[in-house]
Amino acid sequence: AALGGAITAANVDQIAAEIVVEGANGPIDPDASTRLEARGVTVIPDVLANAGGVLVSYYEWVQNLQHLPWDLETVRNRAEKRLVRTTRMVNDRAAEQQTSLRAAAYEIAVERVREALLASGI
Known about the structure:
The chain has helices at 30-38, 46-49, 51-66, 72-97, 101-119; strands spanning 19-21, 42-44. The chain is mainly alpha-helical. It has a two-stranded parallel ribbon with strand order 1-2. Helix 3 (51-66) crosses helix 4 (72-97) and helix 4 crosses helix 5 (101-119). The longest helix has 26 residues, at 72-97. The radius of gyration is 17 Å and the shape is globular. 15% of the residues are buried.
């Protein structure tokens, strides 16, 4: 699912995969997502599948602010550690709550935003 709006209610029944990775932003519409979940198809949500690129962009920004470049191995190690930890966290939450990976990822994201707002005094 590498294009936005690629999987819809109109074509979801043609999907025979056991796992769908959202390689684009919003490639599965809500109706299709519900139907895939009901069929037991694992959907790796866009927010998780695309996190590596976003994370490494953040690392580039940090390096530019600090005027301190990291070597490639440092970037890879930091990214892998963070991505593995986050993926485990999402998987664990989904299993505990018996919910989709998307719902688990969103719950964690909302909690983190809430914590940041509380920490900032808002």
